[in-house]
Amino acid sequence: MLRKFKKEIKGDELLSLILDTSEQIKDVNDTIYSITRIEKMAIKAFSAEWAILWFKDVKKDILYSLTIDKTKRTEIPTNIGLIGKALNMGKSVVLKLAIYENAYDPIIDNMLKVEQKDIIYYPILSENKDVIAILQISNHKKDLQQFREKDLDKLDIFEKHIAPIIRELRDSFIENKDVIKKDSNLNLEANETIKKLTQERDDAERMMASSNRFLAEVAHEIRTPMNAVMGFLELLQLDEDNDEKKLYIDTAIKSGAMMVALVNDLLDFAKIEQGMMELESLVFNPIEEYTTMGPLFASRMKKYNIIFNTFIDPNMPKKIESDPHRVKQVLSNLIGNAVKFTPKNGRILLNISFNKKNEELLFSVTDNGKGIAKSKQDKIFDAFKQEDKSTSREFGGTGLGLSISKKLTDLYGAQLKLESVEGKGSKFFFSIPLKNKIIDGAMQYNQEFINNVKIALIFKERCTYTSNILEKYFKAFGIKNSQIEKLDNWDKINIDNTTHIFCGKDTLNKESIQNMLNHNITVTIMKDDIFKNYKEGLKGDIHELPCAFGPDKLYKVMSGRNLLKDMNNCQVKRDLALVVDDNSINIQFLKAVLDKLGIDIEGAENGKEAIEKYKKSIKSIRPYKIIFMDENMPIMGGNETTKNIIEIEKKNNYPHIPIIGLSGDSTEEHIQNSIDAGMDDSITKPVHIKDISNVLKKFLNKK
């Protein structure tokens, strides 16, 4: 489900909004209308859902509203709930997830009886500093946005231009008048303010609209031809054998990729500025989703010889509802920024943890680079600004990444923060609340296995960072300190009291490793170069893990079990597909694609094997839901296999299973031959993810 972010009202727009409201009520002799306009203005100013202006009756010691029920006053006590607390404090307050506050009263704080989440309370003071009214503003619990502390800055403008009107409204009640009587001085001041605001608004709106429109139009105009440029460059690269020319083409492709990334940043920036950014509200597995960040940056880290570690909390919920793509966009920007400021042989850590008590995900990217000067930290999130101009020359970019990241986290109701010491490094961090967003709780690990592991860590000084990350994972799994031993050489290992060994490439000793493997000890080599094979020639339970690994891979090398499959098995079983292809690479590709789309697969190398598997499947408790059939195979081809399956279905009155052809021939005649053989549809190779997705949507109603 797409949820559009409401446009954030900024300074110039807020002035314009106040101006419009002032114009609407300045000559109106209807008190309730005036209050309603103020409430609507507050809703728009704070991208909220509801607002109530409560007035204080000092004699009765109550608060009352004239707009909840326009036929009579709605009254509440002044000493109950969060509103009573805010009234007593006498100052503005932002309460995130207010409904979970101890002082929250579900009746007094929710007189509209709505599904609210965050609340802002803004007391209006008399000239003697006594509270005479309080404005209550709240948003919907399903809103992805949250109120922020910096929203209180808007109240400074309210205090200057709206509070005087509210004071006069309140005075009119005391004098038992039904109209708003403004004295001549206030009228003159208001008219002068309106005139000034009008000019400021018009100037600001013209400049902002022109700027954003220009950015968006230019970005779109560049993107279209760049798609063609990138596509043809990739085709040239495939057919080029000359190494020197290949290098030229590779450089052009990388330059084109940088330009495409810049265009995407410009479009995102323009969307956010115009309030058009959309989020998808998706249910997903955060461990599976965020673990992909490691491999994504592996080659880039290798290029700059940077050690990249990741910690993806294995105790995160199995399923949450949020937008994974925008969070990953923020993380990609932060990691990319860290690469720019981290020297060769430096370190970068991506940390994603789950705070169970507060029900929130904590994200951070830390580097040990040159850091950011204190004087420049306030400007680092500004658009088109970079800490150092040389950064742009060396790495490219315009400084939009951090600005977009800041705006995206702002829209989430989170706050992207920076801690940095010049010469020592930087840490960017933010949190995403998950209250009411957790669909399925944390994974329960095999306690018997956890209790019986005995781990030896053999790392030298340069790799202690990786060793520390491993320890952090072990403890998250529930493994105790007494089960972990840190050593500096192989001779100190107690063979009889060790089940698992983890070592770095600096302590790699194949003779010692083979000895451990011969004693049935599981050995895992941690490597910072994902393209190197360190286990070649070794026989036994030997594994390799890149430094940027996730809990799923670690759990698998330790226990032999697939963590993500275990997590999925705790839920509803997924549909099963049969992929028939004599090329194992094609089967692997379809397995990866279908797994992402929620389908498990079994493979067959030819038509004869496919028919045997089909016969077993149809009588099992988990039959195939769809078959993907290659058309050119040895022993028995796709069309003949399809005819045999159709015949078995008809003979035994079995339900029909959709059969989708996979062919390198896209001619109409060839496709028609497949359909005539009994296939339900045909996909032309190379197969794209979108093709598979469309087929699943068509035949299995998979979205």
TrEMBL record:
Keywords: Coiled coil, Kinase, Phosphoprotein, Transferase. InterPro entries: 2C_system_His_kinase, CheY-like_superfamily, GAF-like_dom_sf, HATPase_C_sf, HATPase_dom, His_kinase_dom, HisK_dim/P_dom, HisK_dim/P_sf. Signal peptide: none annotated. CDD domains: HATPase_EvgS-ArcB-TorS-like, HisKA, REC_hyHK_CKI1_RcsC-like. Residues 576-700 form the Response regulatory domain. One of its GO terms (molecular function) is phosphorelay sensor kinase activity. Residues 217-436 form the Histidine kinase domain. Residues 180-207 form a coiled coil. Pfam families: HATPase_c, HisKA, Response_reg. This is Sensory transduction protein kinase. It comes from hydrothermal vent metagenome. The lineage of its organism: unclassified sequences, metagenomes, ecological metagenomes.
